Amino acid sequence: MKDQFHRVHDYLRISLTDSCNFRCSYCMPEENISCMPQKHLMQVEEIESIAKTFVKLGVNKIRLTGGEPLVRKGADQIIKTLAQLPVELSLTTNGVYVDKFIDTFKQAGIRSLNVSIDSLQPSRFFQLTKRAVLDKVWNNILLLQKEGFHVKLNVVAMKGINEDEILDFIQLTQKHPLHVRFIEFMPFSGNKWEYQKVIKAQEMLQLVKDSYDFIKLRDEKHATAKKYKLYNAPGTFAFITTMSAPFCVDCNRMRITADGKMKNCLFGKEETDLLGALRKGEKLEHLIQNSLNRKHAFMGGQFNKELKNTQATTIENRSMVKIGG
Asked: What whole-number distance in Å separates Cα of residue 151 and Cα of residue 141?
């Protein structure tokens, strides 16, 4: 599947729910929190049908997201169903329920998981998530590591919040085969984003340079993360440079929200109702391609190249928890 800029799209992210057991402000608005009724969500067979259509069109990788995907009723069945497709299946989670699903992951052939964790300090973790479960999350990270999973830690870096922990996360890679990815703070509906709160990748990299020797690793095709490794460390660290150095020119990603809307870009306001069409018995292929044909060259068509001049209040989009990341 190609868009008008000849970018090949073979990676699909499917949100299973807009519900989450955390309350992270950069993802979820502080006010007017409401989850979709069950009837508005894609059902198991509908997720399977939509996923099969994308696979037929060339998708070879599917990532399950949320909200928190593991709070979705029937998440284990969804995972096992999608595991039957000829794709690389992965998942992003906050880690709380990993121990309950570890056997499901193994049965489904999942070998890589992303765990979102923005602080290693219990008090700050609670401040960010409104949940006192850091020990639970960390123990599940260790469990995944023990069971041989490739574990990536997603850390949203925010000035005035957790920039003093960047080196603490880097130190984890000296002791554990973990892959830490620092994500630049991004604007979404209701998350009170300001450019001044963004810690750019180059700023974080300078912090590392001041304390450690490291090497640059080769980045894979379509990679959003720029990877590095401390000398003799079992783990790696990387920076997702969405705000300081966007990677739109090589984008291969598409997204399906929990209510079955296709988004051709994380930052795009346009959506295509695949679930509504499926429930009417309509074919989805032309809707998918039409959505791709409307994909903008850069950041959903809502940003100019001077990102520092971006006003978050002018961007039309859902909150991150409603998109699925």
From this structure: 8
* Domains, the chain, with CATH or none: 11-323 (3.20.20.70)
Which amino acid, residue 176?
Answer: H
Residue 132 has pLDDT above 90, yes or no: yes
The whole-number pLDDT of residue 228 equals: 98
Per-residue pLDDT, 12: 98
Q: Is the four-CA dihedral 64, 66, 69, 75 of positive or negative sign?
A: negative
Among 111, 186, 181, 171, smallest CA distance to 144 is for 111
Query: Average of pLDDT values for 258-269?
Result: 95
- Would you state the pLDDT for residue 33? 66
Q: What are the φ and ψ backbone dihedral angles of 156, each rounded to 5 degrees?
A: -80, 115
Give the pair of three-digit tokens for residue 75: 């998440």
- Rounded CA-CA distance 166/141 in Å is 18
Query: What are the backbone angles phi and psi of residue 87, rounded to the nearest 5°?
Result: -135, 160
> pTM to 2 decimals?
0.95
CA-based nearest residue to 63, from 184, 175, 222, 198: 222
